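Work Package 4 report. The design task specified in the project plan requires that, given a folded chain encoded as structure tokens, an amino acid be chosen for each position. We show below one input record used in the internal validation round.
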């Protein structure tokens, strides 16, 4: 059984995660700083694809509801453009003990 779990794609594994969505985002992107970023590292580093570039607006769209709360985005952002806090109490990803 464990071997089958290891063969699942990251998308399959992410689909099993449960969330209690907050009504407001715990992630805020400084779009002015972000506009100067050529790499858009946040769109590449996030395993849950929380950040997506809207090419028409040249802005990052934040889908905070998918956040795994790993903090990789704020660590990897070369412009320090992401303000990250834990979601409100009782909201966010639901961790399970196995």
């Amino acid at each position: 059984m464990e071997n089958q779990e290891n063969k699942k794609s990251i998308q399959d594994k992410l689909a099993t995660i449960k969330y209690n969505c907050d009504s407001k985002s715990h992630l805020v992107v400084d779009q002015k700083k972000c506009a100067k970023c050529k790499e858009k590292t946040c769109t590449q580093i996030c395993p849950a694809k929380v950040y997506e570039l809207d090419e028409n607006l040249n802005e990052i769209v934040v889908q905070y509801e998918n956040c795994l709360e790993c903090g990789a985005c704020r660590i990897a952002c070369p412009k320090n453009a992401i303000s990250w806090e834990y979601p409100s109490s009782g909201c966010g990803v639901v961790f399970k003990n196995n």
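Residues 25-94 form a domain with the Alpha-Beta Plaits fold (CATH 3.30.70.20). Validation will be extended to a larger panel in the next phase.
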